[in-house]
Amino acid sequence: MGKAFGAVAGVGAIASLYAMKKSWDPLPSVRSAGFTTLDLSVYKENELVTEKWRGKPIFVLKKTADMVAKQTDAQKARDIEVNGAHYMVCIGLCTHLGCIPAYEPAKEGFLCACHGGQFDYSGNVTKVPPPRGFDIPPFKIEGNTLVLGEAGPEYTKMKENGITL
After folding, report:
1. Distance between CA atoms of residues 40 and 142, nearest Å
2. DSSP at 41
3. Does 165 reside within a domain?
4. Has residue 31 got a pLDDT over 70?
5. pLDDT tens digits for range 134-162
6. CA pair distance 139, 148, nearest whole angstrom
7. pLDDT at site 33
8. Which pTM value belongs to this model?
């Protein structure tokens, strides 16, 4: 009788541990929302596209040859280069209060209407009150695609150099 009770208790303990582990695992829908894949070959120059990653707006701007030619070193450091094309990819929230700035293609910059903050086409602050440039989400380059949510060597280098948080 003792061995039978021990066997039933052992099976029950293993089943309850398995059930607890399954409840701790994230749902498949949550796990798949952690990564967003962007095909960079479809973007047009000087046209801002807003994507979505983890519920946040992601700004993607393919820079023109003129934009790239007149960049400073600080602007070049924030570029993501894929197959010779330069892109600005960032979380589209103002670092001051979290507003969503508007892109002005003619001025090649962003304006946050709430408090007058301005950013250039690389995401650097050109007029305060924002304390820093746009944050860059973790990314990994795979051929012509950009995988948001996974930190590749390019992102790691940017983070080590203090370009993003």
Report:
1. 10
2. G
3. no
4. no
5. 999 999 999 999 999 999 999 999 999 99
6. 4
7. 61
8. 0.80
Both 89 and 15 in one domain: the answer is: no
Cβ atoms within 10 Å, residue 131: 10
- Tokens for 48? 């801002």
Q: Say whether both 68 and 107 belong to one domain.
A: yes
Q: What is the DSSP letter of 115?
A: T
| Longest distance between any two alpha carbons in the chain, whole Å | 85
- Is 70 exceeded by the pLDDT of residue 110? yes
Residue 30 has pLDDT above 70, yes or no: no
Cβ atoms of 144 and 83 within 8 Å: the answer is: yes
> Which range of residues forms the domain containing residue 7?
1-27
CA–centroid distance for 107 within its chain: 24
**Residue 29 confidence (pLDDT):** 59
Closest of 140, 134, 123 to residue 37, by C-alpha: 140
Amino acid at 48: L
Whether 19 and 100 map to the same domain: the answer is no
Q: Residue 104 corresponds to which amino acid?
A: E
Using only the alpha carbons of the chain, give its radius of gyration.
23
Distance separating alpha carbons of residues 8 and 119, to the nearest angstrom: 66
